[in-house]
Each structure stands twice: as structure tokens, then as C-alpha cells.
What we know:
Shape: globular
Helix content: 25-40%
Oligomer: single chain
Structural class: alpha/beta
Distance between the termini: 21 Å
Strand order of the largest sheet: 1-2-4-3
Amino acid sequence: MAQPPSSKDSPPRFPYDHVHLDGRTLEGGGQLMRNALALSALTGRAVTVDHVRGNRKGKTGLRPSHRAAVKLLAKISGSISDGDQVGSQSVTFCPSTPEDTSCRNNETILISLKNVAIQPEYNINLSSPGSVFLIFQALYPYLLYVGSRAGSECIRLTIQGGTNGTDSPSYDYATQVMGPNFARLGLPPLSMTLNKRGWSVGRIEIGSVTFYIHPLASAGTESNVENLNLFKQSVMTKAESMVLGACFPQINLLDHERGKINCIDVTILAPDTGFAQERTSGASTIRTFVERQTRRALRKALQALDPKIFESPSDSLSDDCPEQDTRIPIQVHTSEPTSTTSRLYILLVAHTSTGFRIGHDILLGKDISPKKGKKGQKSHAKGGRDKTDVETVADLIDECVHGFMQELADQPVPDSNPKSESVSKMRSCLDQHMRDQVVVFEALGKLHKNKTETGSQVQEDERYWSLHTQTAKWVCSKMLESDHIG
């Protein structure tokens, strides 16, 4: 696995020089490509990614969903792409650079909106259930920035593909966690509509999601409400401020407290069939079993956490969780039947007193009853015998709840460096998967920030950074060429 080269080894570049990235660096997957594309279109800097998805097992190179993102982003930004065929190991993206794009103090400045032409509606139709949300990740920053040129209140983006699959955000996570957290951090309102679920597990099904993207307002505005109001005025009056450029909000996660947990939402997607020849203590279907067992496992696990992270429960608990030992309400947000046990999905979302959402999810992704003649799953806890269907589902529930507890536990860790004096490290207000989604917006917001900053006595604990987060930060540092991004 390639590691990011030291900045001392890289010769200084002028802001619009061609950037070359090794696609095997750190996480070495599709996120590196998506972030590079987004920042290339925003800055006007050409980028070449070699060894595309070079750390992936099996097929490397460009996949159909990545190709779709490259094609549409090139189309809407007036860019030229090369190597954008499925399976390509090297992709080059060359934006058109308007003449009035400027740079100051050797920093990359975002493209001018003066010559940008944007439509109010776009559609991407995949023939496979590639994740619609990973495609969205590549397009979202650019559409936010140029959206005021569309002449409508928001841009409507419909992507046909997968909405629930492995190793990618689900529709449920995107709408319950990602969208609300973006808004809480100062980005404009983002809403989405599920037209049809698309699955990459079980029998392949293509789904569809429509995103409604409200653009950033012109530089100088402060809040979401002001952003949206100014945008509406600019559409009506065609104010010159539309041409001057938009301003990404300045995001410093340590400016935000996580707050106390005040309730937990549960989403269950599971079949309404029963377990084959097994008793499930009164549960009539797999879905009702998962609902009941998930709440039971949550109540037990919550008892082991520090009570200080919870708000005091209300005097009257909700009907969904009448048990007296429940510290906070646990309620079912969504419960939908699916056609097979391979489509057994669980999402747990904690709401906090400061308005953030902390989520964790899991997908079974395979049928629990093995086909005749094939070996089942081995149970290490049961003497090596094959697991029963109930045990397989119960283990999935326990695994999801355990991961969720890991997201909720927040313990500040003193810095072991004696020179740091009283500096301490703490976890951010976001869960691990949401954390890497925010990196690009942190970096873009810092382009507008005064470099004169006071040293903070609290730093973010990097132990909670996933490889995706580290990769996103590396791409931002290369594409934006700024010492204060990191």
C-alpha cells in the first residue's frame, strides 16, 4: 500500500499545474478518485489518477459507477476526460479554466461562476446497482458551488443504481444521518426522495434516488437561512453576486460539542417470512424478531455506558420502549419487509442534544439458510457445529449494536507528547463514516479562512479517523496545495 509522500519530497507547484495522484495511496479505492474529481472541477486544476482503485481486491480500475461520475461531472463542468472507460487504470480530468479565475498568495482559488452554465435537472442511469451515494459524493461539492447558476431554487439530481449495498452508504443512512449532519455543520438544505430501492445482494435490483441540492450563497453570508434567502433573491434579480463566487462554510468540528444522547432510532429491513423450522420465542416473522431483539440488545448495551452521555429520560417513556431500565427512548424509525434474508439491514441512529446524528449500520448480504449440499456458517461458540438461522441473525444484531456502542463511547485522551503541555485530544461530533464525508468541505471552507488562528488546547483524536478519512485529507492537501489544510 502506497503511503503519501512527504511534502519535502515534492517540488513546489503553481496553483494550476497538473496534479498526479497515485490511486494506491492509503485507502486506495474509489473515494480517492471521487474527491479528486470534485476538487479538480472546483479549482480548474487538471488531475491524473494512476493505478485507479489499486488497493482493491479482485477487479481494479474504473468501475461503471465511477465512469458515470466522471462523465456527468465532465459534461456539466465543460471538462475533458481521458481514460474514462470501465476498467481503466489511469484517468485524467481536465477542467476548462476561465480566464478570470484568480489566485492569491500561491493558494488555489475556486473557479469563477461567470461562464458556468448549469441545468436545473440531471439524470444518471446505471445498468448495475452501483451505489448512487458514491456517485453523489463526486458531484455534490461542485453542484453546491455552481448551483446558483441553474436559475432554479435547487438542482434536481436523479441517480439510478443501488440504494442498499455493501461497503457504501445506504439511503437510510444518507437521509437520517448524512443530510441532517451536513445541515447542522452549515451546508445548505439537502433533501432526497427514494423512488425505488436498489439492491446489490440477492436478486439484483436497480433503484433510484432523487436529490434536491440547494446551492451555496454568495461569499459573505453566514447562515443557512440567510444563504437560502439570498439565493432566492439572486434568482429573482439576477444579482451580480451570483458571478462573484460562492462561499463554503468554515467547518471546525471541535467547535461543535457532540452533546448528550436523547433518543435512538432503529431502522429494520427484513423479510416477513418465518425462520425455517425454528422457534423464535413468539416472533411471528424474521422482521419482528429483529425488531424485538435489536431493542433488547440495545437496552442491555446502553447500561454499560457512562450515564453522563445521556439526557435524563422523560417521565413517560414512549410506547415502543416501556421498560423501566431504558435510559432514553428507543423507537422504530423505519420497518420494511424485504424479499430475502440477504436483504437484512439494520441502522441505529442516536440523536444528540446539539442536533447531530450518530449512526451505525450493517447488512447481512447473504441468505441465512445454505443451499442443499453446501456447508453452513460455523459457530465458534457452539462447539463448531453449523449455526442455526436464529443464531446467525442474532449474531448480526449483536455485531451492529457493538459497533454502535463503539461510536457512542467518547473518552478524551491526553496527548502522550510531553511538549504538548495541556493539549488534549477528543473525538469529533460525528461517527466514523460521516467523518470522512466532511473532509472535503472542511478543506474548502478553509480557503476562505484567515490564517491567523490561536492555538487550541483541544485537538481531534486521530485514532478515530478511518483510512477513508486519512485518504480524503491527503487528496485535499494535494489538490488544494495549502499548508493549513489537514
